[in-house]
Amino acid sequence: MIPIELLEKFDAQLRNYTKGELLFAQNDTARNYYQVHAGAVKMNNFNDDAKEFIQGIFYQGQSFGEPPLFIDIPYPANAEAMADSEVWVLPKSALFNLLEQHPAIHLQLTTQLAKRLYYKAIIASEISNQDPAHRILRYFDYLKYELAQKDKNERYQIPHTRQQIADLLALRVETVIRAIKTLEKKGAVTIEKRKVYR
After folding, report:
1. Is 37 exposed, middle or buried (0-12, 13-18, 19+ CB in 10 A)?
2. Per-residue 3-state assignment (H helix, E strand, C coil) for the chain
3. Of the residues 102, 122, 153, which one is the last residue of a structural domain?
4. Nearest CA to 196 among 149, 170, 151, 164?
5. Does residue 94 sit in the same domain as residue 148?
6. Edge to edge, what strands does the sheet with 22-24 contain?
7. N or C: which end of the chain has fewer CB atoms below 10 A?
8. Does residue 75 share a domain with residue 36?
9. Which domain range does residue 179 map to?
10. Could you tell me if 22 and 84 lie in one domain?
11. Cα(135)–Cα(68) distance, rounded to whole angstroms?
12. What sign does the CA torsion over 113, 118, 120, 121 have?
């Protein structure tokens, strides 16, 4: 999201994280801006039964964990490397300095945060009201059109596993598998070599 040359100009560090390593933990004080350079990072929580709930998955060029920086609250979730990853880390004060000097970047960041908030509201509504296939298709459309910025006629590979989709949408993995098969029969998605395309 923030161009690399700007991150370097404001002394961001490119840090390496191994698969499974925490970048920060739930309830940690928010001190840095994070942007994925390579790999993937998930934000997650665990319930009392140790079941994981994935708040979001972030890939190259995407940032995460920003809201607590702006309102001085602890992180509401963990951030964990899903693979060996490289992540730009910029201290909060440097981020605010960058945003003051580059209002276009500030607007871009605000727009991205607004899209995420909108998505969370949609998913909350879907979880309470819609069947699993509809929920999954809505999430796939969010990934394709909002995050990947793909055209309707472009084929888009869903970047998540069935388990990750289940953890993101509060479903059982068996339910996700059945629902995706149903969507395939309806022509809403295609499956090739276990990969799902929208």
Report:
1. middle
2. CCCHHHHHHCCCEEEEECCCCEEECCCCECCEEEEEEECCEEEEEECCCCCEEEEEEECCCCEECCHHHHHCCECCCEEEECCCEEEEEEEHHHHHHHHHHCHHHHHHHHHHHHHHHHHHHHHHHHHHHCCHHHHHHHHHHHHHHHHCCCCCCCCCECCCCHHHHHHHHCCCHHHHHHHHHHHHHCCCCEEECCEEEC
3. 102
4. 164
5. no
6. 22-24, 78-81, 41-46, 52-58
7. N
8. yes
9. 130-197
10. yes
11. 28
12. positive
Residue 22: give its domain's CATH number.
2.60.120.10
pTM of the predicted protein model? 0.76
Please give the chain's pLDDT, 198 residues, in tens.
899 999 999 999 999 999 999 999 999 999 999 999 999 999 999 888 888 888 889 999 999 999 999 998 999 999 999 999 999 999 999 999 999 999 999 999 999 898 888 877 877 776 666 789 988 998 899 888 877 889 888 999 999 999 999 988 888 999 999 999 999 999 999 999 999 999
Number of domain units in the chain:
2
Structure tokens at 163: 């388990």
